[in-house]
Design goal:
3-stranded antiparallel β-sheet
Length: about 170
């Protein structure tokens, strides 16, 4: 009763992520639900996809739950990956906007630099989660899908400890 409402809401949000991540992942990869899930995920706005990714990269105490979540993440990325009928730029933009919005307050306007920094940090969170809990084949699939979805990004090595991400609209250092 003595905790402020903001603390209570934060606690609820974190608790729900812990409880629902494996459940959501199981539903996303369920072959019986494939058509419904595919239609639903492909049409999700970036704000909702961002929350879904945030939930799925929440580390669990059971390794099997984390591995299930990796399969869910890769399945989502495969579903939003452009197919023959899709406009590749629209799907890439959907993924970019999703990563821009992860772990941010949607109502707050961020500078372009802050958005691209957030993009890079969130991509790294997903990549590390996949690296830590996936099999070799899944890592390859993740890399393959990212090649398409992150087509506006180019990594240029300056030296061993420095990378530059390049976007046609904006240059920044991460």
């Amino acid at each position: 009763m003595l905790l402020p409402m903001t603390e209570i809401n934060t606690y609820k949000k974190e608790t729900l992520k812990d409880e629902y991540a494996p459940f959501l992942a199981a539903k996303i990869i369920d072959p019986k639900q494939r058509n419904k899930i595919q239609e639903w995920i492909r049409n999700l706005p970036p704000e909702t996809l961002a929350k879904l990714f945030e939930c799925l990269i929440k580390r669990q105490s059971e390794r099997s739950d984390n591995e299930l979540q990796v399969k869910g993440i890769i399945n989502i990325m495969a579903l939003i990956n452009p197919t023959g009928n899709d406009n590749i730029n629209d799907k890439c933009r959907q993924f970019e906007e999703t990563l821009f919005r992860m772990n941010t307050n949607i109502e707050t306007k961020q500078s372009a630099l802050a958005q691209w920094n957030n993009f890079g940090q969130n991509w790294l969170k997903i990549a590390r989660f996949i690296k830590d809990y996936s099999e070799v084949a899944q890592k390859g699939l993740f890399d393959s899908i990212c090649t398409t979805l992150c087509k506006n990004m180019e990594i240029r090595k300056k030296n061993q400890s420095f990378c530059r991400y390049r976007n046609p609209r904006l240059h920044l250092l991460l």
